[in-house]
Write a structure and sequence with these properties.
CATH topology: Lipocalin
CATH superfamily: Calycin beta-barrel core domain
Number of helices: 5
Largest sheet: 9 strands, mixed, barrel
Strand content: 15-25%
CATH architecture: Beta Barrel
CATH class: Mainly Beta
Order of helices and strands: HEEEHHEEEEEEEEEEHH
Helix content: 10-25%
Number of strands: 13
Number of domains: 1
């Protein structure tokens, strides 16, 4: 039964990739002088995958005092085949991550979101496509990465956004991402380790849409490679741009509250009297 499920998931992933590529051949998409699609512009996802890649029903959020403001919205998953094939011990870690998500999610700490998470957060990102390499800038935490189209190499060190080597397969931009720090994939605690490799595919399906797919391999965490698939939407409103979202100061309370003067005395059972240093 498991083998049949895995085979079905692989077949569905192949169908999605082939379908997107077929549509791209008919799309009236802008092109560079060398004939490849020009995907420059500001893009954004319109889903709730950052809450849970596998999809979820509406639920109470991690901070109850926020009421409905912090509630989890319902949403359809973007995992091909619906579920992520975790190893049993890794699934236990995912559940632990979820239980501690309010303080342990790297997003809460304003760490750079990594790939593919940066592409489905509730923030736009911008692609700058030159005649050589491709630069991608993200609104969340000011994250940036370069997709190297020539002189491919392995990343010299691990980093939050990894090292990206790209090439064109017809009208599809294929990007192989490695040298990634261990990171979370969403607010539900789905994650990968430093062994992860991500293969992205960006395929134009209209002048205003890209079909985005990513396959994640990580033998330390998953039983087999698995994929996500979703559309990206071009932001076309007048004056569309990225804005500053330098969130480090927003994360200070979560990360450093335990170092505060008040917490120091509280842990030692010492009562503070106003601004006294006692």
């Amino acid at each position: 039964m498991i083998k049949k499920h895995m085979a079905a998931a692989c077949l569905l992933s192949a169908i999605v990739f082939a379908s997107a590529a077929s549509v791209a051949q008919q799309a009236d998409f802008p092109r560079k002088p060398n004939g490849v699609p020009d995907i420059s512009g500001i893009w954004q996802s319109l889903n709730n995958a950052n809450w849970n890649l596998e999809g979820q029903a509406a639920a109470q959020g991690p901070v109850e005092v926020l009421g409905a403001i912090g509630a989890v919205p319902p949403g359809k998953g973007i995992v091909v085949g619906d579920s992520i094939p975790y190893k049993p011990e890794a699934l236990a870690q995912r559940e632990m991550n979820f239980a501690n998500r309010r303080t342990e999610d790297p997003e809460a700490k304003c760490f750079r979101p990594g790939i593919p998470r940066a592409n489905y957060m509730a923030h736009p990102f911008q692609i700058f496509q030159t005649d050589s390499d491709i630069l991608v800038t993200y609104q969340f935490a000011g994250a940036v990465r370069t997709i190297y189209m020539d002189n491919h190499m392995n990343g010299p060190i691990d980093s939050w956004m990894g090292w990206s080597n790209g090439h064109w397969e017809g009208d599809t931009l294929v990007v192989e991402v490695g040298a990634l720090n261990p990171n979370w994939l969403d607010r539900a605690g789905n994650y990968y380790s430093r062994s992860a490799k991500v293969t992205e595919r960006y395929t134009p399906i209209s002048p205003y849409h890209l079909q985005y797919e990513a396959t994640i391999e990580d033998p330390e965490v998953y039983e087999e490679p698995w994929s996500i698939s979703m559309p990206l939407y071009r932001r076309v409103e007048e004056g569309a741009r990225l804005y500053d979202f330098k969130c480090v100061e927003f994360a200070e309370e979560i990360m450093y509250q335990h170092l505060s003067r008040e917490n120091y005395f509280r842990e030692r059972g010492i009562e503070l009297n106003g601004d006294s240093n006692e």
